[in-house]
Amino acid sequence: MPTLSEQITQQLRDWISQGKLPPGARLEEIPVAQQLGVSRTPVRSALQMLSAEGLIEHRPNRGYTIKEFNLEEIMSAYEARAALEAAACRKAALNGVSTEMAQQLRQCLIVGDGLLAKGRLTPQQELSYQQMNMDLHRLLAQAARSPQVQKYIEHINNAVPQASSRVMRWELDLGILRRSHDDHHRIVAAVLERDAHRAQQLMEEHVYFAGLLFRQSYLQQAAQHAAQQGQKKAPQLRR
């Protein structure tokens, strides 16, 4: 069972990946401890862990701030994740999966189908879908039975959370989410049918597509921010 500091570390990672703690935002022990209802000691340990991972930065007299990744760094992380998760699916298909693992993978698909069948998702359903997505990707990585591959995937997810399977773009229309979940069905089918080449190819395309969606969203937000800044700087005409 994770320690309290490890639980806090994961909670902060989730907030960063979800945009609740934006790049450049300050992280202070006391406000975080008060928000989570814990003492400062485990929060301090969590911040030190995140700093060691490079996810937050410590600056003299300023404390900790969320690291700002540029688009190139995030897209590089997506590329690495695509290659690693594709390799994991290939190995899983080659090795074959246990009956228990197959049942868990199918259960993830059933959960996703049920949520997307409801139409527009509520905030709670969004969290349930996000958890399903994380579970499915984690199970596929485990199915490879390669501790090293699993370790590298986990490292990318933690080091650059914007490129992890924890990130969901809820502003997308439901059709795109359904397409993504259709990918899940095809990937799982290829793994269970032991079609290693197809499993590898499908997962690589799946993560690559997620990266393209992130890039599109990132550039749109950057353009909106630039437009807002331009409006603020524009001279006001006197009446």
Largest sheet: 3 strands, antiparallel
Name given to the CATH architecture of the largest domain: Up-down Bundle
Average pLDDT, to the nearest integer?
90
Number of structural domains: 2
End-to-end Cα distance, whole Å, is: 67 Å
By DSSP, the count of extended strands is 3
Spatial sequence of strands, sheet with the most strands: 1-3-2
Give the ordered list of helices and strands: HEHHEEHHHHHH
Oligomer: single chain
CATH topology (fold) name of the largest domain: Four Helix Bundle (Hemerythrin (Met), subunit A)
Count of helical segments?
9
CATH level 1 name of the largest domain: Mainly Alpha
Low-confidence segments, given as residue ranges, are: none
The coarse overall form would be globular
Q: What fraction of residues sit in β-strands?
A: under 5%
Provide the CATH superfamily of the largest domain. GntR ligand-binding domain-like
Secondary-structure-based class equals mainly alpha
Helix content: over 70%
The Cα radius of gyration reads: 20 Å
GO molecular function, one term: DNA binding
Pfam families: FCD, GntR
Protein name: GntR family transcriptional regulator
Keywords: DNA-binding, Transcription, Transcription regulation
Could you list some keywords that capture this structure?
239 residues, mainly alpha, Arc Repressor Mutant, subunit A, Four Helix Bundle (Hemerythrin (Met), subunit A), 3-stranded antiparallel beta sheet, 3 strands, globular, Tscrpt_reg_HTH_GntR, GntR family transcriptional regulator, DNA-binding transcription factor activity
Q: What would you say this structure looks like, in words?
A:
The protein is mainly alpha-helical and 239 residues long. It folds into 2 domains: 4-66, Orthogonal Bundle (Arc Repressor Mutant, subunit A), CATH 1.10.10.10; 71-216, Four Helix Bundle (Hemerythrin (Met), subunit A) (Up-down Bundle). It has 9 helices and 3 strands; from the N terminus they run H-E-H-H-E-E-H-H-H-H-H-H. Strands 1-3-2 form a 3-stranded antiparallel beta sheet. The N and C termini lie far apart (67 Å). The model has no long low-confidence stretch (mean pLDDT 90).
